[in-house]
Design goal:
Helix content is 31%, strand content 25%. With 235 residues, it is α+β, with helices and mostly antiparallel strands.
């Protein structure tokens, strides 16, 4: 009856408002990158701190969780109006993008971060690199005894390029809010470029650049022309 018809109308409107936008880019390493994995069973003489690798190709990867976590931490410093000691204390903008288990309105965020895989293996091969990772030897010095504590840290090499993919979920057709969200995303990418990804950033590791940013509607209907203008002019 009328109730069923009203439900169908509301459901169609919801589907019309729903869309998924894919953002792609290249992550280029300007310095070596270390994102570690467990070394609990490393053999004697092995690298003390290996990087995480794809078990299929044995090539280094950048986990989506690493990108998401660092972006959220950096953006929280800018967009939270009060100090958030934990993610559950984040404000509306951060919560609606990244999710917030403490907020009933934003349990699930609008962003999905994919793992980033090495894409320029052939180019690196043509440059006769000895491997896709390097082992950097570092020391800590005991201030009392002056004894050195050497360690070996594995890094993905400079000039490696990884494929970046982000999915943004449009839950309404408010163009103003979608553009606001994308400006926050762009701020997050800029902050990552000015900061570092992975570990040991204060010692020069993890300087990255995001290149060739593009937005594409992969489900539903949403005109991304304005979003692509933002991506090409503000990064």
């Amino acid at each position: 009856g009328s109730t069923s018809s009203l439900f169908q109308i509301l459901w169609r409107k919801r589907l019309m408002a729903f869309a998924k936008i894919q953002v792609t880019a290249q992550i280029r390493l300007e310095t070596g990158l270390h994102i570690g994995t467990s070394n609990a069973f490393a053999a004697i003489g092995a690298t003390d701190s290996p990087v995480i690798k794809d078990p299929i190709t044995n090539l280094p990867i950048i986990p989506g969780s690493s990108i998401k976590g660092k972006m959220r931490t950096l953006l929280a410093k800018v967009y939270n109006t009060t100090l958030a000691e934990k993610p559950g204390d984040d404000g509306e903008i951060i919560s609606r993008l990244f999710g917030n288990s403490s907020d009933k309105d934003y349990k699930v965020g609008r962003l999905i971060f994919r793992d980033a895989f090495l894409t320029n293996k052939k180019d690196l091969d043509s440059r006769a690199v000895k491997g896709y990772t390097e082992v950097k030897f570092e020391n800590t010095i005991d201030r009392i005894t002056a004894e050195a504590n050497p360690r070996q840290i594995e890094r993905a090499i400079r000039d490696s390029i990884f494929g970046f993919e982000l999915i943004y979920e449009v839950t309404d057709k408010s163009q103003a809010q979608v553009e606001e969200d994308f400006k926050v995303i762009l701020d997050g990418l800029k902050l990552l470029e000015l900061d570092y990804l992975g570990g040991s950033g204060s010692r020069g590791y993890g300087k990255v650049v995001f290149e060739d940013l593009k937005a594409n509607t992969v489900f539903g209907n949403y005109d991304v022309s304005r979003l692509n203008e933002l991506l090409t002019t503000e990064v």
